[in-house]
Give the backbone structure.
Amino acid sequence: MRFLARISIRLLLFNVLLVFLPAAGFFYLDVYEKELLEAQERAMVQQGRLAAAALSKGSGGGQSPGIDAEAAVRLLARLQGRTEMRLRVVDLQGRLLADSAHLIPPRPAPVIDRRSRYFESRALSPEARQTWLYRLGAWLYRLPGRFAGAFGPPEPPSGAETFYMDGQPLLGREIKAALDGRYGATVRPTRGGPRSLTLYSALPVRDGDHIAGAVLVSQSTYRILRALYDVRLDVFKVVLLSVAVAAILSLLVSTTIARPLEALRNEANDLLDRRGRLKGKFRGSQKHDEIGDLARALEQLTARLEGHLRFIEAFASDVSHELKNPLASIRTATEMLAEVDDPADRERFLAVTQREVARMEHLLSAMREITEIDARLDALSPDTAPPVDLRELLPQIVDGFRLRAPEGVGIILHEPGTPVRVAAAPERLDQIFGNLLDNALSFAPPGTAVEVDLIPGAFVTIADRGPGIPPDHLHRLFDRFFTWRPESASLNGHTGLGLAIVKAIAEGYGGGVTARNRSEGGAVFEVKLPELLGD
C-alpha cells in the first residue's frame, strides 16, 4: 500500500489509465464489424436478386419449369470479373448449372510483405548475433508468432470449397429455403483459419408462379476482417506508444514533484534535535511552482517559529529577572522583621513586604493579560469585531482620565466633524488609549496638558510636554519589561508591559503604533487602525 501511495506511482497509473481510455474503441470495432457484415450481405442479396430476375425473365415457360443452363452461363460470363462475389445457379434438384468461379479469371492472391524475410536473410557475423541488442530484437521478432493464433491477422481464403463439393448436389439449408420460395442465408467457416468466414445468400428463381431454381451468392469476409485487423493493429500501436510516452512523462513529472518533496521531508526530519528544539530552518527554494511556494512558506514558518521560541526564552528570562528584585526585597524584609523588636521598624519592614507583594501581583496580572492577548491575536480581526465610532469612544476614555489626572495636568481632545469608525472590541480600544494616556500623564509636568487628536483615517495621536524619549531608547520602547523614567521619577506601578500591550492589540487589528519626540519638547505616540468606510 505504501508503494501505491507514492506520487510517482499514482501519476503513472493515472496517465496510463488515460491512455487506455481510447482503447475502449476496440469494443466499438465489434459493432463496426457487424455493420460491415450486414452491408456485405445486403450487397450480396441485391446482386442475387438481379441475377434471379434476369434468369426468371429468360426462363422457359413450358410444362415443367426450369432454368436455361446456357442462359445462366452467358449471364455469369458477362460479369467479366466485375464482382468479387461467387454466383452459382442451381436447378430444383440442387444440380449446379453455372458457376462464376469457373467462368471469371481468378483474382491474384494478396501480396504478402516479405521484407522481414529480407532482413532475416542478411548475413550477420557471429559476434553481432551474440549481442544483447540482437537477442532482444530476435526475441521481439519471434514473439508475435507465439501468439499468432490469438493475435495474428486473418488468413486469406484458400479458394477451395469446404461445404459444397464438386459433382454433388448443392442442397444446403439456404438453398433449400430458396427452393421453397424463401430467402436463405447462412455463415460457414472458410478454409484458411477459423477467423475467416464465408457468407451464403440464396434467392429463388421464379418461372411464373413456379420455382425454377435458385441463385447462390457467396463471399468471404476476409477483406472486412483484414481491414478490422489493420485498424486494431494501428490502435494497439498508438496505445503502446502512448503508454511509453505516458511513462516517460510521468517519470519526468514525478521527478520534479517527488524529489523536491523528499528533500523537504529530509529537511523537516533534520529540523529538530532529540529534545525537540529547532536546530535549523528550511532553506527555501528558487522554483516558481507550487513546491517552491511551499518551500518558501516553510522557510518563513520556521523563521517565525524560531523568533517566537527566542521570544519565549527571552520572556521567561525577563519574567525571572523582574520577579527576582521584589522577591529579594520580600526575603530581606521578612528576615529583618524576625530580628527587630521596635514596632516602628517592624511596621516599616511590613510595609515594604506588602508593597513588593502588590508589585508582584500587578506584574503577574500584566503578564497574564499580555499572554492572553498573544494567545488570542487571531481573534483580534477586523472581520469579526463590531464597528466602533472613535468620536464617541475617545471622549468617554478621556473624561475618565481627567478625574484621576495629576494635579495641574489637563487633557485636551481634538475631534473631527465626521464619524471615524473602526472594527475593534471597545474594551481593547480602551486598553490601547488608556495605557497611552496613563503613560503620557505620568510624564506630563504640572501646568501642561496632554493633547489627544483624532484625525479622519483612524489616526490618533497622544502628545505630552514631558522630557521626551532618549534617542537610544526609541527602538526599545515597545519591548516587554522595558521601562524608563527620569532619575527624579518613581517606577512604582510601572511594569514595562503597558506599551507592549498597546502594540500587540494594534497590530492584532491590522494597525500599528509608533513613538517620536516633538520638536518643542515631549513625546508623541501615534496609533493607526484600519478605518471602516461607508455606512
